[in-house]
Every structure is written in C-alpha cells, then in structure tokens.
Specification:
The N and C termini lie far apart (57 Å). By secondary structure, this protein is α+β, with helices and mostly antiparallel strands. It is built from 8 helices and 18 strands. Strands 1, 2, 3, 4, 5, 6, 7, 9, 10, 13, 15 and 18 form a 12-stranded mixed beta sheet that branches. It has 2 domains: 5-122 and 258-302, Probable inorganic polyphosphate/atp-NAD kinase, domain 1 (Rossmann fold, 3-Layer(aba) Sandwich); 124-255, Tumour Suppressor Smad4. It is an enzyme of class 2 (transferase).
Amino acid sequence: MDRTLLGLVLHPTRDASEVIAIIADWAARHGKSLAVRTEDRHRVPPNVESYPTDELVKRASALISIGGDGTMLGALRSTVGNPKPVLGVHLGRLGFLVEVEPPELPEALDRLTHKNFTVEAHGCLACDVCGDDVVAFNDIALIRRPGTGVAIATLAVDGQRYGYYRCDALVVSTPTGSTAYSYAAGGPLVSPATQAVVVTPSAPMAGISRSVVLSPEEKVRLELTPESGPVAVEVDGRVFREATSEGAIDITYRREAGLVVRLDPRRYQERNQLKLSLMDLPLLPEQLRELLPRNFREHLNRRELSPPR
C-alpha cells in the first residue's frame, strides 16, 4: 500500500481513550493514518477514518488491538483469510496474547511501521457448527444449560468413532487456548510452539474422562446424542448459539491463520511463564515485579537505588 494505515480494534466496553490519544498523537507527528471499525466511530477523534471490519482489514497495514486477550482474539478472527500483523496493547488483567503496555506505545509504533518486529503465527480451529462456519483461536466449547441435563456427545477422529463424553462441558482448544477454559477443566498446558488440538471434558461423569491430544491433521467431529440435554456453544468465550440439543460440530486445525506482533519474544515468554505460575505456584517478590508495567518497575528500581535521606 502507498500509505501506512493502522487499524484500531477497541475493547467493546472498556474506556480506551487514553491509549487512543497516545496513538493519535504519534500518528499526527509521523504522518500516519488511523482507522477503526464502523461501530467504534463515535469513540475516536474526527480525523480517524472508519470502515466495516472486512474493509478495515483489507486496507490496514497492521491492526492494533486495545484491550485484553478477548479483544486480541476478536482482532485475529477478523483477519482470517487475510492475515495482517496484530499488535496487542494491554488494558486487561491477565493477558497471555497482548504484549505492550500503554507507556511503551510510541516506541512500539515506531518499530511496527519500520517492520522491526517478529511475527508469531497462530493456528485456529475452523468449525462447522450445525452448518454455520466459525473460527476460534482459543477454543470452542459445548456447555450444558443448568437444570436441563448434561452434555452427551460422541467423538470421531478422521471419521472413526472413539467413544462418548457425558459431562458439564466439552472444550476443544488450540495450544494458545490451552491456558484458558481447557486448563480450568483440567486439560494440559500445551506449548504455543507446537501445533495440536486438545479435547477436554469438564466434570466428566461417564465415557471419556481425560484430555485427548490430537495432531493438527486429524479432523474432529463431536455429535450430540438424543439423550443429551440442550447445550450452548461458545467460541473464544463468546456465545455463538444459545441452546441446541441435536447436530454436530466438525473441527479442523488451520495453520498460520493469525499473525501476532512480537517486539521482545524472550521477555514475552518469561512474562507468560510467570503468569502461568500465578495459577498454581507462589511467586518470589522479584518474579512478581516482572509482571508490573515497565515504567513502574523502573520507578521502583530508582527508589531502591536512591541513598536514604
């Protein structure tokens, strides 16, 4: 493209005005253009362009996701079929995908526009949910409705049936999503450097009771049985279908469907290891410090190095 157009993807409800102001100021000083999705037009300055999501992805050189992991996942889903680099700016709490804190933005934007970064490719689950196509970068889940029975579904891999699940929920995840719902259901942590599909039942009562880890080449089919209660279908934590008591979900793994910008892959990996430790293990004070924003860490370091008064 002849000009650099950066697309902004905003958290649907959280106030992102401070981050937008930082980006708008940087863009004005560097002669770059900004755009948002049409539905976010009222949340940005008048000189920011707006387009429908598909057109925004088509025109943008890169996307900037402002929010947490949920916002980042939405940005990645919008680029399936036309992958563009996505930079995550942190407004959430415990994010595994986002990397940049607001004070780090000017330097990050300089590097983004000068292509001084690495790209981390993420696979997704391409799903046919009872005839509707949908993609998930974290997971797709069948979840029972309270008071209406349990989820009962058969599992088939490459057309061969292997057994059935009788459980509260059934979660199919990517390696990226292994730290989310699948992990909470007792599933394994899978390195993001690998490619796999993980099927994990939550609160299993009968049938298959352990996680199943499959290769990215294997096709998964989950089919509700006539005895199943109605289930909701969630995609990356968002309700895709309120309730269904029949039908099947066909799932295939799609490689390199999303591109995540990494400015400091080693530091990002270390921070994620510490975030994972928060789930199970107590942390040392110096480890907790690494989770703080960089400017706050530097402030603490300066205070500790200052001579006592």
